[in-house]
Amino acid sequence: MSKYFRMQSIPFFLFFGLLAMLSTALKAQVQEGTASYYADKFEGKPTASGEKYKHAKLTAAHRTLPFGTVLRVTNTQTGQSAEVRVNDRGPFVKNRVLDVSKSAAEALGFLNKGLAVVKIEVIDAGDGKGSGPIRPIGQVTIEEKEFYDFEVNRSKPKGFGVQIGTYQELVNLVRLSQNLRTSYRKEVTVQVKAINGIKVYTIILGKFSSRAKAGDFLMKLQKKYPDAFIVDFQRL
Questions:
Q1: Which of 109, 127, 171, 187 is the most buried (most CB within 10 A)?
Q2: Residue 27 confidence (pLDDT) above 60
Protein backbone atom coordinates (compact mmCIF):
# COMPACT_ATOMS: atom_id res chain seq x y z
CA MET A 1 0.00 0.00 0.00
CA SER A 2 1.31 3.42 -0.91
CA LYS A 3 1.83 6.09 1.72
CA TYR A 4 1.65 9.83 1.21
CA PHE A 5 3.36 12.60 3.12
CA ARG A 6 2.93 16.35 2.81
CA MET A 7 6.17 18.33 3.00
CA GLN A 8 5.82 21.85 4.37
CA SER A 9 8.21 24.76 4.70
CA ILE A 10 7.34 25.44 8.39
CA PRO A 11 10.49 24.77 10.50
CA PHE A 12 9.93 21.85 12.84
CA PHE A 13 12.91 19.55 13.32
CA LEU A 14 16.16 18.44 11.68
CA PHE A 15 15.65 15.14 9.94
CA PHE A 16 19.14 13.65 10.30
CA GLY A 17 18.00 10.32 11.74
CA LEU A 18 15.64 9.66 8.86
CA LEU A 19 18.23 10.85 6.38
CA ALA A 20 20.77 8.36 7.69
CA MET A 21 18.24 5.54 7.72
CA LEU A 22 16.74 6.06 4.25
CA SER A 23 19.63 7.32 2.12
CA THR A 24 21.21 4.57 0.00
CA ALA A 25 24.83 5.01 -1.03
CA LEU A 26 25.55 4.57 -4.71
CA LYS A 27 27.77 1.62 -5.24
CA ALA A 28 30.72 2.04 -7.58
CA GLN A 29 33.19 4.77 -8.49
CA VAL A 30 33.08 4.45 -12.27
CA GLN A 31 31.45 1.39 -13.77
CA GLU A 32 32.58 -0.40 -16.87
CA GLY A 33 30.88 -3.36 -18.44
CA THR A 34 28.61 -4.57 -21.21
CA ALA A 35 25.53 -2.63 -22.27
CA SER A 36 22.59 -3.79 -24.35
CA TYR A 37 19.46 -2.04 -25.57
CA TYR A 38 15.68 -2.51 -25.34
CA ALA A 39 13.86 -4.65 -27.87
CA ASP A 40 11.08 -3.02 -29.88
CA LYS A 41 8.46 -5.07 -28.01
CA PHE A 42 8.93 -2.86 -24.92
CA GLU A 43 7.77 0.31 -26.71
CA GLY A 44 5.03 1.97 -24.67
CA LYS A 45 5.28 -0.43 -21.75
CA PRO A 46 5.74 0.87 -18.18
CA THR A 47 9.24 0.96 -16.73
CA ALA A 48 10.01 0.39 -13.04
CA SER A 49 9.71 4.15 -12.38
CA GLY A 50 6.19 4.22 -13.80
CA GLU A 51 7.16 6.02 -17.01
CA LYS A 52 6.43 4.36 -20.32
CA TYR A 53 9.43 3.25 -22.36
CA LYS A 54 9.92 5.30 -25.53
CA HIS A 55 12.71 4.31 -27.89
CA ALA A 56 13.22 7.92 -29.03
CA LYS A 57 14.19 9.12 -25.53
CA LEU A 58 17.68 8.78 -24.07
CA THR A 59 16.89 6.59 -21.07
CA ALA A 60 18.42 3.56 -19.37
CA ALA A 61 17.89 0.76 -16.89
CA HIS A 62 20.37 0.29 -14.03
CA ARG A 63 20.15 -2.15 -11.12
CA THR A 64 20.82 0.30 -8.27
CA LEU A 65 21.15 3.95 -9.32
CA PRO A 66 18.21 6.17 -8.27
CA PHE A 67 15.58 7.03 -10.85
CA GLY A 68 16.35 10.41 -12.38
CA THR A 69 20.13 9.97 -12.25
CA VAL A 70 21.76 11.25 -15.43
CA LEU A 71 24.69 9.22 -16.76
CA ARG A 72 27.36 9.83 -19.33
CA VAL A 73 27.80 6.53 -21.16
CA THR A 74 30.86 6.08 -23.39
CA ASN A 75 31.47 3.29 -25.88
CA THR A 76 35.03 2.31 -24.96
CA GLN A 77 35.74 0.97 -28.46
CA THR A 78 34.54 3.93 -30.53
CA GLY A 79 34.65 6.80 -28.03
CA GLN A 80 31.05 7.74 -28.83
CA SER A 81 29.10 8.97 -25.82
CA ALA A 82 25.55 9.88 -24.82
CA GLU A 83 23.78 11.22 -21.75
CA VAL A 84 20.96 9.01 -20.52
CA ARG A 85 18.52 9.23 -17.62
CA VAL A 86 17.83 6.20 -15.39
CA ASN A 87 14.11 5.37 -15.28
CA ASP A 88 14.08 1.58 -15.10
CA ARG A 89 15.61 -1.42 -13.31
CA GLY A 90 17.83 -3.94 -15.03
CA PRO A 91 19.48 -5.45 -16.94
CA PHE A 92 18.68 -8.88 -15.54
CA VAL A 93 21.15 -10.72 -17.72
CA LYS A 94 24.44 -11.87 -16.23
CA ASN A 95 27.52 -9.73 -16.99
CA ARG A 96 25.56 -6.73 -18.25
CA VAL A 97 25.58 -3.40 -16.40
CA LEU A 98 23.16 -1.23 -18.40
CA ASP A 99 20.22 -1.39 -20.77
CA VAL A 100 19.75 1.73 -22.89
CA SER A 101 16.97 2.91 -25.17
CA LYS A 102 17.24 2.24 -28.89
CA SER A 103 18.07 5.87 -29.68
CA ALA A 104 20.83 5.81 -27.05
CA ALA A 105 22.27 2.65 -28.59
CA GLU A 106 22.29 4.42 -31.95
CA ALA A 107 24.10 7.42 -30.44
CA LEU A 108 26.63 5.06 -28.88
CA GLY A 109 27.20 3.26 -32.16
CA PHE A 110 26.22 -0.30 -31.26
CA LEU A 111 22.74 -0.55 -32.76
CA ASN A 112 23.84 -3.20 -35.26
CA LYS A 113 26.12 -5.13 -32.90
CA GLY A 114 23.56 -5.25 -30.09
CA LEU A 115 26.17 -5.06 -27.31
CA ALA A 116 29.01 -2.73 -26.37
CA VAL A 117 31.55 -2.35 -23.58
CA VAL A 118 30.81 1.00 -21.96
CA LYS A 119 32.05 3.30 -19.21
CA ILE A 120 29.35 4.80 -16.98
CA GLU A 121 29.77 8.08 -15.06
CA VAL A 122 27.20 10.10 -13.12
CA ILE A 123 26.91 13.68 -14.34
CA ASP A 124 23.82 14.58 -12.31
CA ALA A 125 23.16 12.79 -9.04
CA GLY A 126 20.85 15.53 -7.75
CA ASP A 127 17.39 16.04 -9.20
CA GLY A 128 18.35 14.30 -12.45
CA LYS A 129 17.39 17.25 -14.63
CA GLY A 130 20.54 19.32 -15.07
CA SER A 131 24.11 18.88 -16.16
CA GLY A 132 27.48 19.63 -14.70
CA PRO A 133 30.85 18.16 -13.81
CA ILE A 134 31.22 14.41 -13.58
CA ARG A 135 30.55 13.03 -10.10
CA PRO A 136 31.75 9.54 -9.12
CA ILE A 137 28.97 6.97 -8.80
CA GLY A 138 30.24 6.08 -5.33
CA GLN A 139 29.36 9.50 -3.87
CA VAL A 140 26.27 11.52 -3.13
CA THR A 141 27.62 15.06 -3.33
CA ILE A 142 26.31 17.41 -0.65
CA GLU A 143 27.19 20.92 0.34
CA GLU A 144 29.17 21.56 3.49
CA LYS A 145 26.82 22.14 6.44
CA GLU A 146 23.72 21.31 4.41
CA PHE A 147 20.68 21.58 6.73
CA TYR A 148 16.93 21.37 6.14
CA ASP A 149 14.09 22.23 8.51
CA PHE A 150 10.70 20.82 7.60
CA GLU A 151 7.54 19.20 8.87
CA VAL A 152 6.15 15.91 7.61
CA ASN A 153 2.47 14.97 7.98
CA ARG A 154 0.64 11.83 6.88
CA SER A 155 -1.75 12.77 4.07
CA LYS A 156 -4.74 11.47 2.10
CA PRO A 157 -4.59 13.63 -1.02
CA LYS A 158 -7.54 14.10 -3.36
CA GLY A 159 -7.89 15.48 -6.85
CA PHE A 160 -4.99 15.65 -9.29
CA GLY A 161 -1.29 16.43 -9.14
CA VAL A 162 1.73 16.46 -11.45
CA GLN A 163 4.34 13.76 -10.89
CA ILE A 164 7.87 15.12 -11.28
CA GLY A 165 10.03 12.06 -10.66
CA THR A 166 10.86 9.05 -8.49
CA TYR A 167 13.93 8.85 -6.25
CA GLN A 168 15.70 6.55 -3.81
CA GLU A 169 18.05 9.06 -2.21
CA LEU A 170 16.40 11.14 0.51
CA VAL A 171 18.86 13.99 -0.06
CA ASN A 172 17.66 14.24 -3.68
CA LEU A 173 14.05 14.19 -2.50
CA VAL A 174 14.60 17.02 0.00
CA ARG A 175 16.55 19.20 -2.41
CA LEU A 176 14.09 18.91 -5.26
CA SER A 177 11.06 19.35 -2.97
CA GLN A 178 12.52 22.57 -1.64
CA ASN A 179 13.33 23.86 -5.14
CA LEU A 180 9.88 23.01 -6.47
CA ARG A 181 8.05 24.61 -3.57
CA THR A 182 10.13 27.79 -3.90
CA SER A 183 9.87 27.99 -7.70
CA TYR A 184 6.19 27.13 -8.21
CA ARG A 185 4.55 27.96 -4.85
CA LYS A 186 2.69 24.65 -4.86
CA GLU A 187 2.30 22.00 -2.19
CA VAL A 188 4.63 19.01 -2.52
CA THR A 189 3.31 15.51 -1.83
CA VAL A 190 5.60 12.49 -1.51
CA GLN A 191 4.28 9.02 -2.29
CA VAL A 192 6.21 6.15 -0.68
CA LYS A 193 5.99 2.89 -2.59
CA ALA A 194 7.92 -0.22 -3.56
CA ILE A 195 8.91 -1.02 -7.14
CA ASN A 196 10.40 -4.46 -7.75
CA GLY A 197 11.05 -4.74 -4.02
CA ILE A 198 12.90 -1.40 -3.83
CA LYS A 199 11.49 1.43 -1.71
CA VAL A 200 11.23 4.67 -3.69
CA TYR A 201 9.83 8.16 -3.17
CA THR A 202 7.72 9.87 -5.83
CA ILE A 203 7.40 13.66 -5.84
CA ILE A 204 3.99 15.03 -6.86
CA LEU A 205 3.55 18.77 -7.20
CA GLY A 206 0.27 20.60 -6.58
CA LYS A 207 -3.28 19.56 -5.73
CA PHE A 208 -5.89 20.46 -8.34
CA SER A 209 -9.64 19.94 -8.30
CA SER A 210 -9.76 18.93 -11.97
CA ARG A 211 -7.57 17.25 -14.56
CA ALA A 212 -7.90 20.35 -16.76
CA LYS A 213 -6.33 22.58 -14.08
CA ALA A 214 -3.55 20.06 -13.56
CA GLY A 215 -3.02 20.02 -17.32
CA ASP A 216 -2.62 23.80 -17.43
CA PHE A 217 0.03 23.56 -14.72
CA LEU A 218 1.75 20.65 -16.50
CA MET A 219 2.20 22.87 -19.56
CA LYS A 220 4.27 25.28 -17.44
CA LEU A 221 6.52 22.44 -16.28
CA GLN A 222 7.17 20.54 -19.48
CA LYS A 223 10.17 22.54 -20.68
CA LYS A 224 12.14 21.84 -17.48
CA TYR A 225 10.50 18.51 -16.61
CA PRO A 226 9.58 16.92 -19.96
CA ASP A 227 8.71 13.57 -18.37
CA ALA A 228 6.25 15.00 -15.84
CA PHE A 229 2.68 13.74 -16.09
CA ILE A 230 -0.73 14.12 -14.41
CA VAL A 231 -1.73 11.70 -11.65
CA ASP A 232 -5.12 11.05 -10.11
CA PHE A 233 -4.56 10.66 -6.36
CA GLN A 234 -7.58 8.39 -6.02
CA ARG A 235 -6.14 5.88 -8.50
CA LEU A 236 -2.56 5.70 -7.26
A1: 127
A2: no
